Amino acid sequence: STQSNMGSFKFELKMVLLGRRRRRFRVLDLMMSKRRKELKVAKLEQRRQQLLEETFEARRLLHESFGQLEPDVFGKIVNPVFMGGPEWPNWRQAHKMIHRTNSTLIMSDGLSDACQYSYPENPTGFGFEVYIETKDANMLNKTISDMIPSWLYQVVEAVSQSCAEYHELLLERLEEYTYISQEVVLPPNFLPAEYQNHTTHTAAVILGIPSPDIPAWFDAPGGRVRLMSVKLISQQDLQRMLKKPGQGRTELAEQFIKDGSFHFSSIVSNEESN
């Protein structure tokens, strides 16, 4: 009986030790698995950062091909994300200004960054950048500081934020339509009543009207990126467009192409410009 009890005790002890060893191996396995995942994530982030650097350089060369690039950028002291604004692919939100021979161009810089949370699935972020261009004389040869309160920057910044917030819907619409229209909210009475509804504070734009000398696509290191123009339209044009949903937008865009105004935005009347 004593030997039987002793044998039983040894067996139980052996099982306890075996169980501890198995738990120890499981813990080690979990630690190694966690470490492997961390290394994988670190390698992916390293590759993403490298792609970002290559993308920044490629976009800089693109901007310089359009004209004289301002060394500074439009940016916010506090990222709009922290104020309830939409998130950009790499969080970084900026716009670049290029001085051209007879115009000023402002283009978003960051909507095509490699996504922070979905790389490598989205190496070009949302897959597009937006830009606005004007020939208005009072918008030429200005500094970044001069242009921050300008209608040109405020319009493209508002459109950039709207496109960031609804990028999935926007991309779906771009598959279906050649041109996209939208209204954006601006500060009260920011534009003349001809271009802003002073009751709703909204202004209307058409996206995607081709430029005579800015390509519709850009080959970035991560893939193709759409360069999408933003054209501010009058409230009269908006009402005319709304009378023919879809067709009205296309007719208006084709009218701008035919009359040679293309994607250019202006709040200067013909009388003032002559």
Main traits of this protein?
17% strand, 43% helix, 8 strands, 274 residues, disordered C terminus
Mean pLDDT: 90
Helix percent band: 40-55%
Distance between the termini: 117 Å
Low-pLDDT segments:
270-274
**Rg over CA atoms:** 28 Å
Share of β-strand residues: 15-25%
Kindly state the number of beta strands: 8
Q: SS-based structural class?
A: alpha+beta
Total helical segments? 7
Main sheet overview? 8 strands, mixed
Please trace the helix and strand order, writing H or E for each element: HEEEEHHHEEEEHHH
Gross morphology is elongated
Structure description:
By secondary structure, the protein is α+β, with helices and mostly antiparallel strands. It is 43% helix and 17% strand. It is built from seven helices and eight strands, in the order αββββαααββββααα. Strands 1, 2, 3, 4, 5, 6, 7 and 8 form an eight-stranded mixed β-sheet that branches. Strand 2 (95-99) and strand 3 (104-108) form a beta hairpin. Helix 5 (235-242) packs across helix 6. It is elongated, with a radius of gyration of 28 Å. The protein starts with a helix and ends with a helix. The model is unreliable at 270-274 (pLDDT under 50).
Summarize the structure in short.
By secondary structure, the chain is an alpha+beta fold.
SSE diagram, text form:
Layout: H1 2-66, E1 68-69, E2 95-99, E3 104-108, E4 128-134, H2 144-147, H3 151-165, H4 167-176, E5 180-185, E6 202-207, E7 217-220, E8 223-233, H5 235-242, H6 247-259, H7 270-273
Parallel strand pairs: 4-8
Antiparallel strand pairs: 1-2, 2-3, 3-4, 5-6, 6-8, 7-8
Helix pairs in contact: 5-6
